[in-house]
Amino acid sequence: MRIAFMGTPDFAVPTLDALLAAGHEIAAAYSQPPRPAGRGKGLAPSPVQKRAQAAGIEMRTPISLRGAEEQAAFAALDLDVAIVAAYGLILPAPILDAPRHGCINVHASLLPRWRGAAPIQRAILAGDRITGVTIMQMERGLDTGPMLAALPAEIGRKTAGELTAELAAIGAGLTATVLERLYQTGRIPQDGARATYAPKIEKREAKLDFSLPAVQVERQVRAFNPAPGAYFDYGNERIKVLAAEVSELSGEPGTVLDHGLAVACGEGSILPSLVQRSGRGAMSTAELLRGFAIPAGVPLK
User: Fold this and answer.
1) Which residue among 87, 152, 157, 218 has its CA within the 20 to 30 Å range from the CA of 126?
2) What are the two backbone dihedrals, phi and then psi, of residue 206, each rounded to the nearest 5 degrees?
3) In the beta sheet, which residues pair with residue 282?
4) For residue 237, what are the contacts with CB-CB under 8 A and spacing of at least 6?
5) What domains are defined for the chain?
6) CA distance 213 to 232
């Protein structure tokens, strides 16, 4: 099939690889433009752009697809289908309608649950036991289109990073399977009454809220690992918490309860096990406390 691939982050790369391995013709790849990154703030291409360029695929990085010129260039590709995986730009109607079989999205949830930008993090925060990947025919609504296929995955104690990698692999295989039988695949309408929404993660959400029960605070830690990183402030220092356990110790929420950095929550407490100071690498809590004392009894912000 003649395909345009549209994606930006690491999540999308396995699907692009699967399309190449299946022998499809990738007429062009679309990704969001390079962004400032690193200490020097130089422009860095997205993971999809780097992979597409390595494979010799024509690369396009428009700021928007709303202009007539970009839409005409897309239509001129004469596509069978466009595959979209975490692209991050809105596809206007002329883009959705240009390929013969429309645009197909690889979405990291079991729709209609968690439509929107951050389905993986929202599923972890909500304490969901199961998530998955849905392959969906795109239409003008936000992740409202009919479903072509879906596969579940258990969340367990996985971080957002671990779950993203797992779902990316599932999505890649499922997309390849759907394309093999695209002409025969039925479309299953979504039940809009069961829909939930996953708005993008705001940086302010990553600050740990110790007024919540410890089980919810621990979900914050996993949902924001690796980015933006759950954290608390102590003095002038910001400490990221990359992993934590739930403890039965109790006390005033936000108070350090012992010399091992157990922190009281609204119910129970959490015990950070992997942390990171600003400008430093990840370390165990014991390593942190050897050079940066946080005594019992102090309140954390």
Assistant:
1) 87
2) -75, -10
3) 276
4) 277, 278, 292
5) 2-198 (3.40.50.170), 203-291 (3.10.25.10)
6) 16
